[in-house]
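Exercise 7. Predict the joint structure of the components listed below.
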Amino acid sequence: MIDLVLIGLTRFLVGGQAHWIGASPDTRQRIYFANHASHLDTLLIWSALPRLLRGSTHPIAASDYWGKGRVRRHIALKVLNAVLVDRATQGPPGAALAPLRGVLAEGESLVLFPEGTRGTERLPGPFKSGLYWLSQEFPEVELIPTYLDNPSRAFPKGTFLPVPISCTVRFGAPLSRRQGEEKDAFLERARAAVGALASDPVA
Amino acid sequence: MSLSDKLFILFGGISALLGVASVIGFALSRKVTSENGRATVDNLNARIKAWWVMVAIFAVSFGLGRGVTVVLFALTSFYALREFTSLTPTRGADHLPLVAAFYVLLPLQYWLIWIDWYALFTILIPVYGFLLLPSLAALKGDPEQFLLRVSRIQWGLMLTVYCISHAPALLTLDIPGRPREGFLLLFFLITVAQFSDVMQYVSGKLFGRTKVAPVVSPSKTVEGLVGGGLSAVAAGAGLWWITPFTPLEAAAMALAIVAMGFLGGLALSAVKRSMGVKDWGTMISGHGGVLDRMDSLSFAAPVFFHLTRYFYT
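Solution:
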């Protein structure tokens, strides 16, 4: 019930049309990785996915925002199936990834924002290494670059109310795997794949 | 004849017209072979289908009364403003003025029309919005392209909210001896404006040769304008019996609607070009966005509203 209200509200305010450019909606196990600009991003991808996929797809959400307050927490965990991650986790590289590994090990899909935090530019900033480690550990999972157009305008950082500006969600072709690719080269390639989906008719 | 009898005849007539169009569209789709022709016929059929939906929505809202009609137009404005803003470059400092435009000025404008506060709804956006929006934008202290940014938001609001809201405002007009006939005036306005668009498209496709403004709007031709305009003026004159106008006056009113509609289509086409797009959106299949359908109405509505108000109330 709440999910339908949230999807309805998202569609009403920002549209959130899905464009499957290089991939089609499929039940294969996937990691969708996207640029991150706004709190709307998780909702946008979630509304853009067909219902069938929503149940088995888990967005990663920062616990310092989505874990706060009973309502937000309930929406994140119960409605969006989100996995909450503590961005401040200390420890060896990739320690914060434990909950994500769990989801992937169960055969479910993930939505990831590898920039780690919300950016202000149209093109994504440098990616954190999590995507690389997961891609190494779960080589059978498809990596789908995803570009979110406009959420930074509809709901910019530091504001309290989204305004109605149409946003689109573009899903690109799965990122190819390359034998023995270095971490930085892989992350740069992944970032470029997301950026390449940005169509920019208006400066 | 009672109001509901008239509405029944009118919507019956439009359904018959659309029925004929659907049959022709179906026949064409079975005959066409070339790829280019197929695209044109598919677009035509998508347009006809969308017309059925739009007419059904209007018929239902007319049937349910003034409140529903006002809400319907408020939603139309909402989607048109969303389209306008989506294509307009904005910066972070424009967020507050946009919040005010969507969540304060838009509902307020339609509420004023609902309670029939003429003196305020005609100045709310051009005067108070005009002062409020740049003030809010300036508070953020971002001078980059300031004038350009506030003008875009203000003009978007004028076109999509202020102008379009004058269509349902016709329902507030009190014409002596004709209670509750605002619906018929609204019907007259929409029918003439949209019929003019359709007939300009049709006669442009059939006879179009001389382009009016090739750079701004390549599909607008003199032949299309004259053919479409004359058909719409004739249709308007033929609808005199639902209005307070004589047949000649109805033709003159229709001419005003056609002229303003044409200019609206042209001006908004120029806005689209300046933003580098062909359509305002994708919401109405075959037609493009809401604003692609409402561009002529947005220019025609305020003029028709005022002409009627000054001469007939």
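Discussion. Chain B has three domains: 1-64, 66-172, 175-312.
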